[in-house]
Amino acid sequence: MKKLITLSMLFMATVVIGQEETPTKKVSIGGSVDAYYQTYLTAPDNIGASFGSSFAEQTGFALGMANIIATYEGETTGAVADLAFGPRGVGAVGGDESIFINQLYAYWNVSESTKLTMGRFNTFLGYEVISPVANFNYSTSYLFSNGPFSHVGLKADFALSDDFSLMLAVMNETDVNNNMSGDYSLGAQFGYAGQFLNFYYANVGLGFEVDYTGGFDLSDSFFLGINAAYADNDGEGFMGAALYPQVATSDNFSIGLRGEFFDWLSDADSSVDDQDVFAVTLTGSYTLENLIIKPELRLDSNSQEVYSDNDLAPTKSLAAFTLAAIYSF
After folding, report:
1. What domains can you pick out in the chain, each with its CATH number?
2. Distance between CA atoms of 133 and 291, rounded to whole angstroms?
3. N or C end of the chain: smaller count of CB under 10 Å?
4. Which has the closest alpha carbon to 107: 155, 160, 166?
């Protein structure tokens, strides 16, 4: 009996020690799916044209993307695999239908204030993001569409204090998985209390971009988001600014407006010639459990006659109604 009790105590001690030495591990799966209906109010739906911004460019009933995100968290290290399928996903990964990786990176929390990340991660520039769950407006802005979507490289995030943060990065040129040119880009982000000043530089592609992203809670129910950017590569690029006022009318419903002015500089895009555009997007957002329903009205006014009206005559404006359904899990 003494031997049995001794063996039992040794076994229990071994189990307790083993439990204490086992590192904390956490695996989670999440993501989203979205679909929408869109019709032009000032042009036939079959004209084959769109606003010129990314995603949500189809008419009738259309698909967004299926986004599946797997996350592994250890005590100080972890990894993220973010896969995107569907038209929005193909556009997000650079138009290559054989690649469905939106993000794929590993990270190391070197200390409480320093984090290193290596792999493919979404851009730090701009107010809007690829995932429709995180954007208030369903259609995207020109600033988002003309900036980078993702980067492949190494970045270091530093929490300098409760309010100040700094990020430094060295990367391939924007939206390039395999660096065949031998050119690299540099990025930096300085943050203060939810306001961010971003910098990007590369010898090829986008060139130099400076970007401000931020926002202010003007009241408990009224938020104002702000985005402004300037990009230049040997005289070609863009500049623009956008405001995002949003009002929560109840726990489940909010309404928001995006007003944006965007100007292409020189011949940055072969499809535009000294154009600028003013776009207004009014979006409602109703949340039911994990389902988000977004009715949206959008009107774009271009300085050139780049659209068609209902008689197929050239015109400077295009209006559309969109109804989107987004489910996150």
Report:
1. 25-328 (2.40.160.10)
2. 10
3. N
4. 155
pLDDT digits (tens, 9 = 90+) for 287-314: 999 999 999 999 999 999 999 999 999 9
Are the C-beta atoms of 286 and 292 separated by less than 8 Å?
A: yes
What is the three-state SS of 2-42? HHHHHHHHHHHHHHHHHHHHCCCCEEEEEEEEEEEEEEECC
Q: Give residue for tokens 């540099």.
A: 186
Which residue type does 200 have?
Y
* Number of Cβ within a 10 Å radius of residue 323: 16
* 84 DSSP assignment: E
pLDDT tens-digit series, residues 119-134: 999 999 999 999 999 9
* Cα R_g (the chain), whole angstroms: 24
With 0-12 / 13-18 / 19 or more C-beta atoms within 10 angstroms meaning exposed / middle / buried, residue 34 is: buried
Report pTM. Answer: 0.86
